[in-house]
Amino acid sequence: MVEIFGNIREIYDFTVPCGELLPFIEFFSESSAEKCERYFDAGHDSVTMFESWTPTFYINLTGNYTIDVGGKRFTVEQDRDILILRNGTVTRYNRPEDRIFTVKFYPGGLEAVLGLNQAGMSNRVITLNGLLPARLLSLLKDASCFIERVRLMENYLLTVMPGKVSDHYSQMVGAAIGEYTNSGMQLNTSEIAERLFISSKSINRYFNRVVGIAPKSYFSALRARTALTAMVAGSNSFSPVDYGYYDPAHFYKDIFKFTGRKISDGF
Prior knowledge:
Elements: E1 12-15, E2 25-31, H1 33-39, E3 46-49, E4 56-60, E5 65-69, E6 72-76, E7 82-84, E8 90-93, E9 100-105, H2 109-114, E10 126-127, H3 134-142, H4 146-160, H5 168-182, H6 189-195, H7 200-210, H8 215-233, H9 248-259
Antiparallel strand pairs: 1-2, 2-9, 3-8, 4-7, 4-9, 5-6, 5-8, 7-10
């Protein structure tokens, strides 16, 4: 199953973090035995996800699984937990019995909470066992349910997170993403920099420092993801112009670059 084109969330439970973590974490999730039994045969033996530049923890609760990152295939053993950046297309190969607990951070969120900069994580599968306490990982695996795992992870992150996140780079990147989103994705990088009273050179430096990519490239991926999601959800009312595209041809070209698929091929 392919993200956006299909509902990859069918076999997972989801919840958002507590208020203090909301600016930094998009969601917690866990594959559900009940939902796997109900939906797994509908294409969930593999899940392909497009670039989002969102650092993500995968806490392995059961056996081995396979994942493609950066054009390479990795086997993740039962006792191994990983962190990936999702800077490109990622495919995870599932079995109905797999159980994985996931923490998905916003761009820059991992650094704000744990002090781990994501800029050097591209195309890597990083072992979490050296980044999170062994005791925490053990408690997460032994926990009785998804909600208990969420509570354990939240408590740990709140304990280690600085009382006030004041990193100037991260704050400016967050503000820039907010300006871009609130404008209906109509602004270019120079216009966003002007609104934030910084130079184009500075906003490029901030994004490369915090996210690991230039703002123009990040905004392009964000727009493609958002516009494609809207098109799939309601194609009759969708207009690419509403998302800053010049015309349909501009949109189609961008979607092919983002997904490797042509809109004309159907979804």
